[in-house]
Fold these 2 entries.
Entry 1:
Amino acid sequence: MEKNNLITGTTALAMTVTLSYIDEGDTVVDATCGAGQDTVALADAVGGDGCVYAFDIQEKAVRRTEERLSGCGISNAQVIKKSFVSMGEFVPDGSASAVVFNLGYLPGGDHSITTTADETLEGLECALRAIRPGGVVTVVMYDGHEEGKTEKQRVMEWAAALDPKQYHAAYVNMLNQQNHPPEILWVTKKKNGA
Ligand SMILES: C[S@@+](CC[C@H](N)C(=O)[O-])C[C@H]1O[C@@H](n2cnc3c(N)ncnc32)[C@H](O)[C@@H]1O
């Protein structure tokens, strides 16, 4: 059987690693649901006993995600038209096995509606509160546009400064590829400092 060549596709790599942290029945968060692709993958992973909270600030993204979910017959995802900084209103602290951020703007949508450095850093703090020990925060970052460049830099500084006794941060960059391919950051909350 042909193997999936994981390092050639950033979003597939980001999701494959994320899924390794998720069990059926888990609570997970799609912080930026966009067109709903990640929401569907997460909902499949947690199954009918699990739950996905999916956030986006755009009506268009919420609609596209809801349509995608219903097209796949998925009913274990709640799509919320709010910023990811509202995560704590829905997701109890320490309850999620994964929180996924796919930063930037909606492909095929309004490019001026994009994640911003300040709000993303606030959202990442919310995500660290939401995940349980052993859980993961996944961030797919794009630095091919101005806001994305600043945002990536600030996110990387934030991750590098996390307490190494509590968190482990790892980063992937497609070193030799053209046109600013997305980059991936993962942060996991250590169990008992291990
Ligand atoms: C790259 S797209 C996400 C793609 C999506 N994960 C998918 O699988 O299709 C980024 C999304 O982030 C959303 N966004 C921007 N700021 C946000 C915020 N503060 N909270 C939640 N979503 C936000 C945008 O509206 C856009 O839909």
Entry 2:
Amino acid sequence: MNTVTENTEFWLDTVSIRQIRKPDLPGLEWGGEYKHFRRIYADAYQRVLKGLSLIWVAELHPVGLIGQLFIQLNCDRPELADGVYKAYMYAFRIRETFRSRGLGTLMMKTIESDLKRRSFSVLTLNVAKDNPRAQELYKRLGFVVTSDEPGIWSYPDDKGIWHQVHEPAWRMEKTL
Ligand SMILES: CC(C)(COP(=O)(O)OP(=O)(O)OC[C@H]1O[C@@H](n2cnc3c(N)ncnc32)[C@H](O)[C@@H]1OP(=O)(O)O)[C@@H](O)C(=O)NCCC(=O)NCCS
């Protein structure tokens, strides 16, 4: 195990959970693992600049970005995010070495407080049906399943090649 992770309290206390800045964008690719999402990240960042989205990152010195969570405040699916009451979270990931040590929960609590300050009262998400551990985490945090989401979407990768994703999911919601 990485020595940084041996003392949970020490490293978790030094993690900075903050909103993204432009120089952070390459760090979201996690050294190439998520390079195929480069255009998605660039588009999301443009939405941040327009006030439509938020991108939260968790940074640990000297490691770099070890977590991320995207929020849509408004989108073309009002059942997910309506710009007033409902916000939608997605692309929530913690780097593997740092999982199951409380960082994900800390990020969720941070963004929930921020959304409340912005007067949002409902947080929505889609979680893959084959991801029971994440479902457990969300239940523990007070989310309940509200519907079924087909989970069909597509995206252009970093080379502009389109990919179809089929990831059946549960819609979960929490009153903030
Ligand atoms: C889900 C995730 C963001 C939670 O962050 P975290 O820092 O591990 O969260 P916490 O330490 O606060 O809570 C840990 C809980 O997260 C859940 N979890 C979900 N996927 C997990 C994974 N791959 N590894 C570890 N924990 C996971 C479990 O319920 C876990 O509880 P447990 O340790 O008692 O089993 C993180 O585990 C992760 O990046 N998983 C892979 C990507 C993913 O599934 N994202 C959610 C998409 S909807």
